[in-house]
């Protein structure tokens, strides 16, 4: 083994010895951006305690929470019926009134946005305090952003990653009356696939766009052309556009149904420009994240110094 090999080995061992600050379960976070993960992530989580994170950002800004990965017990049926282990996201501190979504399984939730400067994230395990099947939990990053980025449904309006999720507000609880939400999926060759769809009641007719409905458009240089309007309880087939896709969701004052949960894939100009783990100014951690190792800048510096010291 040469010096370089030894240095590399020590570096790798140090990386393993520093699996990030992710053993913490919940807490109060007040930085402009940061990362939250299930305890022991990316190792399986201990299913003994519920975790609550209270994220607050400077007044006038809102919290954008982007899920990198989730792996939670999907029983009995995701995404609608999370029953054993789940993530809940709350809009502000008033937990009773403001559940924005409940998620489990393996499909990351949409990038969620709070209405005000506080968001609460809960990782709930108590109903089934076991993790025999070794689910690994979740990793998400948050940052303070301007409120204008909201789709109107409590999640991000402009979607620029290769894959992502869209959902109506409060999924899988019912959406509210008078919703007017709009998402743009940037890129080309966009395919939208529905996993859950209950809009306006089982027998809803959405001709004439009078009831609750979802409308999908393809965008051409500042014009948009309607692909289709969807409602009822029949899941639409996959929808494809060659160019960017625009999705709109409207609800009236009548029936408020469960809503929809959909994922998309798109070809984007530069797939490395996906949301980063570090924040707006940071670089994506290409290979580190794919290997499942999360380190902070401080830890990296420490490790580099250590490696250098040993080499000298
Ligand atoms: C969360 O933080 C905010 C602001 O610091 C505080 O007002 C609120 O009471 C906290 N909520 C919980 C549940 O800890
Ligand atoms: C979040 O709360 C704000 C008020 O602080 C409200 O205007 C907004 O509609 C809420 N969003 C969702 C998705 O519940
Ligand atoms: C479009 O995307 C699909 C998968 O979503 C892929 O199979 C197909 O090759 C893509 N087409 C082009 C022209 O990139
Ligand atoms: C990740 O590793 C691959 C080869 O395994 C390399 O081509 C690529 O540049 C690396 N990406 C980053 C961001 O380091």
TrEMBL record:
<keyword id="KW-0677">Repeat</keyword>
<dbReference type="Pfam" id="PF00431">
    <property type="entry name" value="CUB"/>
</dbReference>
<protein>
    <submittedName>
        <fullName>CUB domain-containing protein 2-like</fullName>
    </submittedName>
</protein>
<keyword id="KW-0732">Signal</keyword>
<feature type="domain" description="CUB">
    <location>
        <begin position="25"/>
        <end position="145"/>
    </location>
</feature>
<dbReference type="InterPro" id="IPR035914">
    <property type="entry name" value="Sperma_CUB_dom_sf"/>
</dbReference>
<feature type="domain" description="CUB">
    <location>
        <begin position="153"/>
        <end position="267"/>
    </location>
</feature>
<feature type="signal peptide">
    <location>
        <begin position="1"/>
        <end position="22"/>
    </location>
</feature>
<keyword id="KW-1015">Disulfide bond</keyword>
<dbReference type="InterPro" id="IPR000859">
    <property type="entry name" value="CUB_dom"/>
</dbReference>
């Amino acid at each position: 083994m040469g010096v370089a090999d030894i240095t590399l080995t020590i570096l790798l061992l140090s990386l393993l010895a520093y699996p990030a600050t992710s053993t913490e379960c919940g807490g109060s976070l007040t930085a402009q951006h940061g990362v939250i993960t299930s305890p022991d992530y990316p190792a399986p989580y201990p299913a003994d305690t519920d975790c609550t994170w209270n994220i607050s950002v400077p007044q006038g800004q809102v919290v954008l929470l982007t899920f990198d990965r989730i792996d939670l017990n999907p029983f009995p049926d995701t995404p609608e019926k999370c029953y054993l282990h789940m993530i809940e996201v709350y809009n502000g501190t008033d937990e009773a009134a403001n559940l924005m979504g409940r998620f489990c399984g393996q499909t990351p939730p949409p990038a969620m946005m709070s209405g005000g400067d506080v968001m609460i994230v809960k990782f709930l395990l108590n109903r089934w305090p076991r993790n025999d099947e070794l689910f690994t939990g979740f990793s998400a990053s948050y940052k303070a952003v301007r409120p204008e980025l909201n789709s109107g449904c409590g999640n991000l309006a402009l979607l620029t990653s290769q894959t992502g999720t869209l959902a109506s507000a409060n999924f899988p609880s019912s959406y509210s009356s008078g919703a007017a939400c709009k998402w743009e999926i940037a890129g080309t060759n966009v395919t939208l696939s529905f996993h859950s769809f209950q809009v306006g009641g089982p027998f809803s007719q959405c001709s004439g766009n009078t009831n609750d409905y979802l409308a999908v458009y393809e965008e051409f240089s500042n014009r948009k052309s309607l692909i289709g309007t969807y409602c009822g309880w029949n899941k639409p087939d996959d929808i494809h556009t060659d160019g960017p896709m625009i999705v709109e969701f409207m609800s009236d004052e009548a029936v408020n149904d469960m809503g929809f949960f959909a994922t998309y894939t798109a070809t984007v100009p530069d797939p490395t420009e996906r949301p980063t783990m570090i924040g707006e100014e940071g670089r994506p951690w290409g290979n580190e994240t794919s290997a499942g190792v999360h380190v902070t800048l401080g830890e990296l510096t420490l490790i580099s110094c250590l490696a250098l010291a040993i080499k000298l």
